[in-house]
Amino acid sequence: MISSGHGSGYGSGSPAGRRPLPDDAVLPPPQAPLSAVTWRECAYLLSSWPLDLIAFCYVLIWIYVGVLLSVTVIGLPVLALGLVGCRWFGRWERARARALLRVVVEEPSPLRARRGAGFFVWLWSALRDPVGWRSALFVVVRLPWALVTFALMSVAFFVAWPVLPWLARGFSQVDRGLVRTLLSPSESLERRIAELEEDRTAVSDTASADLRRIERDLHDGAQARLVALAMDLGLAKEKLTEDPEAAARMVDEAHGEVKLALQELRDLARGIHPAVLTDRGLGPALSSVAARCTVPVTVDIDLDQRPAPAIEGIAYFTTSELLQNISKHSNAHHATIEIWRTTDRLMIQVTDNGQGGATTTHGTGLAGLTERLTAVDGLLAIQSPHGGPTTITAELPWRDRHGHKHEGRAVR
Predict the structure, then answer these.
(1) pLDDT at residue 294, as a whole number
(2) Are 404 and 317 in contact (CB under 8 A)?
């Protein structure tokens, strides 16, 4: 958000500390030459030339040295570090415009690479940094303008004193436009990019954890049972001629082990992606989950069409995990699942009449659910006072099965 306006000293008798006006507000007309607003604008215009000259020399030397050394291993790091320096200059200019021109420009997101990324990932992120490049462009573009305004304002102080406020206002408006255009975060694009990078890391971590869980379940469950089954069948084969009755008992036990192994594999496959969800949708899939819950569950799903498979899968596993939490931790006697759609959101609300006290910090899996939902522009809201009841509401973006996201939001 960018805003401009006036603070202390704008206008006659204006109180100190007035908040900046929004962009569409009209600045007050120029006042007498000795007004505070005129002096601030003059101070900005006269100080821009020497500061821009220093910054321009920095940018010129940085680009020259970086390009000259680009044939060596240190050329790209020099360019990257130079962009970091340009970021610092942009921050200084935003602060100066805020103090003297009353132009408030939101700070862009800090330069960062993914957690655990190495030097070359950081280097590539720095070289692609739009904030640094726009700050450098600001220096180059404003240098000739700063020279012109410095010369004209210096002359106006001696020969055009009566029109000084109007000159200062006109020249400073150009500077306000340059600051907004080149030093603003472009509708918070950089901030959004940083958030998406963090979300991508969270999704990657969650996927890795899920793969490790599946591997552990296979190793400790079905795989171990099948290994034991193979050994039992080998022993039964050896006893087949010597002790047929013992061999028959062992085969019978092996048959039971096969059933258990198949059940474990079914449970594991259901945890990955249940077939009923793919074939029939959220209603039947969650009704099946509710039937296995240790607490009686009422399911109320009001959807006129199915969301995209990815959103449907996240909704299914979110609801399933919430039901598992109810079974393990709530001591509830009844639970309710409600799922509906607003204009662009898929809403999930799970309520139980248990003991309450659910938080994201006590190992109930709610912290992981929050990260998973945040990664797809969703959110998780928890209302769980001690003594209950507990109501957990999840929101997911609505995307239809063709992958389209519908804009706008309605409230149920």
Answers:
(1) 83
(2) no
At 192, the amino acid letter reads R
Question: Dihedral (C-alpha) 18, 22, 24, 25: value to the nearest 10 degrees?
Answer: -10
Place of tokens 């004193």: 161
Query: CA angle, 20 as apex, 19 and 26 as ends, to 5°?
Result: 130
Q: What is the CATH number of domain 280-397?
A: 3.30.565.10
Domains of the chain by residue range:
2-187, 200-272, 280-397
Burial class (CB within 10 angstroms; exposed 0-12, middle 13-18, buried 19+) of 187 = exposed
Planar angle of CA 28, 34, 36, nearest 5 degrees = 55
Closest by CA to 37, choosing from 55, 60, 53, 13, is 13
Q: Give the residue ranges of the chain where pLDDT is below 50.
A: 1-19, 21, 24, 114-116, 406-412
Written as one string, the DSSP assignment of 283-342 is: HHHHHHHHHHSSS-EEEEEE-SS-B-HHHHHHHHHHHHHHHHHIIIII--S-EEEEEEE-
| CATH classification for the domain delimited by 200-272, as one of 2.60.40, 2.30.30, 1.25.40, 1.20.5 | 1.20.5
How many angstroms separate the CA atoms of 57 and 60, rounded?
5
- CA torsion sign, 20 to 22 to 28 to 32? positive
Show the tokens assigned to 375.
């990664």
C-alpha count within 13 angstroms, C-beta hemisphere, residue 37: 29
Answer whether 132's CB lies under 8 Å from 84's CB.
yes
Q: Using DSSP bridges, classify how beta strands 345-352 and 390-397 pair: parallel, antiparallel or unpaired.
A: antiparallel
* pLDDT tens figures, 264-289: 676 666 556 677 777 888 888 888 88
Looking at the whole model, is its pTM more than 0.70?
Answer: no
Which residues, 6+ apart, have CB-to-CB distance to 287 below 8 Å? 299
**Cα–Cα distance measured from residue 55 to residue 277, given in angstroms and rounded to the nearest whole number:** 60
d(CA 139, CA 338): 56
Cβ atoms of 111 and 194 closer than 8 Å: no
pLDDT of residue 52: 92
